[in-house]
């Protein structure tokens, strides 16, 4: 959701001067019946500069050089030369006639053949050599990398410029330019530059990037925007079978499975930089799949790519993105080594895919130079720093950028820094920026203090009735070494105030040693999750739903205090230890946590019953998250939204007698989550949780299998279980969820246009309860454990109206239990690409 809300900030602003390019041409390619010809090849005559028309036959082409003619070709049609009488030529209508019979030329129309196709013969040779080309030819490599990310408001017109929204900000429109890819007017609104030293070892399969300089316009220190940029633009290798953009897996045109999803046509051959190359055009076989259309030039001896241009097809099942365009250029080193020197990617973000809709361009340009090879570094060189802190890289002088920019900024890019610095002083801009910031972070910003989160202001449950909550946190900047958070809440039915306060302080920045502590007195839904953490102010499931599918009165009054210390001993490996003290008692007259302190006997038939729990506990936790990417270096950091594995282990020890603590026990809990991207088939998530408590404990300390009595989907809960339906002291749960990303629906003609996405999943749990724990139960709640594995399965439809998902869940067994939900429908909202 953060990404879409930040995009909305860019949708707010906009920019109309003519660019300095010498030749511009746009138009549409049609057949004789006036039907668009998709994926036609349009090039300037006498050059290798060209583009492939989109699915509607439209194209735009621009060059800083002067050209006098276009060559337009398409499979099954005669080539056509179009004279250009002036430098700027818009709205050409180009009509192609059917091809005549040609000698020794094979014409492919529609779906190309997989047999006797020379383009596929070349493609197979690319597969054979792809691990022997470029950087892969060397044991080690070094190079410099320059990256420039820019966001531009596009499709700017006079009516937009006159909008009252921009009163006082009219000066920004002096920076309007024209895209050399789409021909649309655009206004630059953000730019970020970075310079890196890159080192790689193909034997160790290690890569290290050292950031040496970073410069951001207008929004210095805004981690939300930096995180957003990192989310959007992940690194990729054009030779890989699948390319990941916007959390989607696209089939590469160089993929070994490309034959099944692309048509390939050998269109041309020519010398490029004194190397003879073949030109192959590719376009998708089916609509709605995550594919590209475009062309590439490949060398005839090394079968290495010299140049590739490609754009995402308009029908691809991806939200908020109207277009993605990619260019890569390779230079020849030592006569036979082709090295990537320029990588350009442009995305057109918009609320819809209509041609005239306004949106935002996101452009990333990456340049490489100064390659060196076979300079070996010791293994420890590639060890990542736990917390990279070098403020100097964010404050480089102008001389640094003059020396380290691989290409000069154009006049519009150079003006962005000054324009946005000025914009920060405009009151109207500040108001708009603050509004979007509130929606993105959930906090209202004041000086050194944030109020929120605003989305937790209202809640409801059967004990408190309507619940109001106010809170906030200290905030001096995104990299604060310490932070304090607090809240208070009031329930109108129980007429009680609740509160929570916590603080954390990073005492060692290099190794991220953090001391934290806090106290919370509130009402909680025990058993909302199995795996516990030290977060005192974690989400309160007692008040998170305004409507439920059944009674949610099984609530507990909790008074929890804790202190802990954690350390990131190596990158993404965190060790923490803590002490906690809690008291638990029922918050409802209809729910009991009673337990026997003395069991009934012949001399004492009723035994001795206690209603509250006092418990001191010590714990140590290990958390490992390989491939996790973070932004910032403060006590709290933002995560880059990319999949990573998550492994968590918690050991807890009940300290009987410490502060009148009631129980001695040992508990171990393990959590493991593994995302798996299965190429074009989507992404799976596998989640395993297991745990066991050694010792005798009451209901308040048992492991309750998490049910879900809301109308909304909650991760790691069982949709068909009620609260406290299963109670255990030893458990194992396994979940598998898979997102097909719309691939199945894309094969059904009448469903293609809906762009819905398919989800399936299975959840299972096995658990037991010891005889000793059953014996002390005096709560009146029957202890049921899933000694025979309980399971449920679900299927869902997502991307409904782009923001809604429905999950249908079926109970697999235990159908005769009281109030058993055999079938459930849950929904969820979210903004997804």
Automatic annotation (TrEMBL):
Domain of life of the native organism: Bacteria
Q: What is this protein called?
A: DUF5686 family protein
SUPFAM superfamilies given in the database record = Carboxypeptidase regulatory domain-like
Q: Which keywords label this protein?
A: Signal
Hey, what's the signal peptide range on this chain?
1-21
> Sorted alphabetically, which Gene3D superfamilies does this protein's record hold?
Carboxypeptidase-like, regulatory domain (2.60.40.1120)
> What organism does the record attribute this protein to?
Flavobacterium chungbukense
UniProt KW Transport keyword: no
UniProt cross-references to InterPro entries, sorted A to Z? CarboxyPept-like_regulatory, DUF5686
